[in-house]
Recover the amino acids of this structure.
């Protein structure tokens, strides 16, 4: 298990990869797919060159990924500059009563749930998922049974990087693409994982949905600053009454 402080920069990497491909004349949807593949490949390289030498050393891993985060932000600033870039939002909008909503927002919701379902299927219904859960729960036992835990860790890290790249790719048309954009999501990501509890997929999906709803509802009613404050308050309240997170009481079903 790795605390990756550069995870937000993988989101930024995916967004800039989408921007670069679309500016090169590639269609937006194809650019997003390219960004996912490129970010996953980059994650694979990072794991092989850096992360795999730091397993079982959490402090060193955090320092290394923090340093990687700084390097990636500065490289992006050198290549693209610090000016906010943008991609035209595809699709149109529709009205519900007095409110107007972008059709692309529905695409974002669909992509998020599709990726969550795909990850669940991979983890629960494939041999790779079985090996991943075994390596995460008891790596020594898995090694004793012939599982190459290093290889599993490598591909799992690349898969996680690809998911981050997918997030950056689909967010690129609706947020400003800047070198520091990934930092906006890191704190929320860690908060969702902690509040979610040991069942990392079900817990993270549930926690991110609940915390996101709190922040957005309060932000719309008051201000974004108050929304962010209430997000933190909601996380503290949940952990006060559920110290092990939303899925802390689960016994069956493992980590997923």
């Amino acid at each position: 298990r790795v605390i990756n402080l550069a995870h937000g920069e993988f989101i930024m990497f995916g967004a800039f990869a989408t921007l670069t491909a679309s500016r090169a004349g590639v269609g937006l949807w194809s650019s997003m797919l390219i960004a996912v593949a490129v970010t996953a490949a980059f994650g694979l390289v990072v794991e092989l060159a850096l992360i795999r030498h730091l397993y079982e050393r959490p402090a060193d891993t955090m320092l290394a990924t923090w340093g990687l985060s700084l390097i990636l932000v500065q490289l992006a600033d050198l290549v693209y500059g610090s000016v906010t870039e943008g991609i035209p939002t595809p699709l149109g909008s529709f009205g519900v009563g007095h409110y107007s909503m972008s059709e692309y927002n529905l695409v974002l919701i669909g992509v998020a749930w599709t990726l969550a379902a795909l990850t669940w299927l991979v983890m629960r219904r494939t041999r790779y998922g079985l090996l991943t859960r075994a390596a995460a729960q008891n790596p020594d036992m898995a090694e004793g049974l012939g599982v190459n835990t290093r290889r599993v860790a490598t591909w799992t890290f690349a898969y996680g990087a690809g998911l981050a790249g997918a997030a950056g790719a689909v967010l690129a048309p609706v947020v400003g693409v800047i070198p520091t954009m990934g930092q906006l999501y890191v704190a929320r990501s860690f908060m969702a994982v902690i509040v979610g509890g040991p069942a990392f997929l079900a817990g993270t999906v549930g926690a991110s949905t609940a915390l996101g709803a709190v922040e957005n509802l309060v932000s719309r009613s008051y201000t974004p600053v108050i929304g962010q404050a209430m997000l933190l308050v909601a996380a503290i309240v949940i952990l006060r009454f559920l110290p092990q997170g939303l899925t802390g009481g689960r016994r069956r079903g493992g980590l997923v």
